[in-house]
Design goal:
Distance between the termini: 36 Å
CATH architecture of the domain at 4-130: 3-Layer(aba) Sandwich
Number of strands: 8
Largest sheet: 8 strands, mixed
Shape: globular
CATH class of the domain at 4-130: Alpha Beta
Strand content: 15-25%
Helix content: 25-40%
Strand order of the largest sheet: 1-2-3-4-5-6-8-7
Bound molecules: coenzyme A
Structural class: alpha+beta
Number of helices: 5
Radius of gyration: 15 Å
Length: about 180
């Protein structure tokens, strides 16, 4: 079991550990959840992402985390921080926050609850000066969440992602500075 990194009222966010890729594949790798993320992945692709996440966590102390519902112990999402590393992105190395929630738990406030904790973590222990989040115009729920978190659209950071179809291009970015986060009401 990976370290418990963050805790909120309803959620535990713990580090990825060996074997979590199969769990993520079963619970989160569905057509609805992956619709704007390039579609359902092969298990080996999730394993490769998890290996990268575990290495990032070991080296820098942050990565995407497994989101566990306290009342059931179920995996309900995957969220956290990575470094922008898409070769076409103009802001390599920025701290990128991201999220996905299993479909039967959508619209319960889980993504927002988790991301408040993740952003506090980014600006606290991790010491990020600003964070960004990536999505597409068609992924309305995702950019509305970015706006609810106080993030601002950065058109200057848009880029084309060949892994995604035309309907999810360009990749668009929102950003949030530590000062804006700390001064929110
Ligand atoms: C986007 C996603 C993470 C939202 O998760 P969620 O737990 O349902 O979101 P929350 O309940 O915390 O909602 C927070 C805010 O997000 C926005 N939002 C979430 N889903 C929305 C939807 N379907 N339509 C419009 N706005 C939505 C709203 O602003 C909402 O605030 P409100 O409830 O006050 O209106 C979820 O739909 C998901 O996993 N989608 C598939 C994966 C994905 O695309 N991830 C993002 C990659 S960039």
């Amino acid at each position: 079991m990976g370290d418990i990194v963050l805790e909120t009222e309803r959620l535990i966010l713990r580090a990825i550990s060996e074997g979590d890729a199969a769990l993520q594949d079963r619970v989160l790798n569905t057509p609805a959840v992956m619709e704007h993320l390039g579609g359902v992945k092969q298990l080996h692709e999730i394993e490769a992402k998890h290996a990268k996440g575990m290495a990032l966590y070991a080296q820098y102390g942050f990565s995407f985390l497994m989101m566990i519902e306290k009342t059931t112990g179920d995996l309900v999402g995957h969220a956290g921080i990575k470094q922008v590393d898409h070769p076409a992105a103009p802001n390599q190395g920025d701290h990128e926050v991201g999220w996905l929630i299993r479909e039967d738990r959508w619209r319960r406030g889980y993504a927002h609850e988790a991301m408040v904790a993740v952003i506090d973590w980014a600006f606290g222990r991790i010491g990020a000066p600003h964070v960004v989040a990536l999505t597409s115009l068609r992924n309305i729920g995702s950019w509305k969440l970015m706006e609810k978190l106080g993030m601002e659209r950065r058109q200057d950071l848009d880029f084309t992602d060949p892994a995604f179809g035309p309907s999810d291009n360009p990749a668009i970015q929102y950003a949030l500075t530590r000062e804006t986060w700390k001064s929110r009401p």
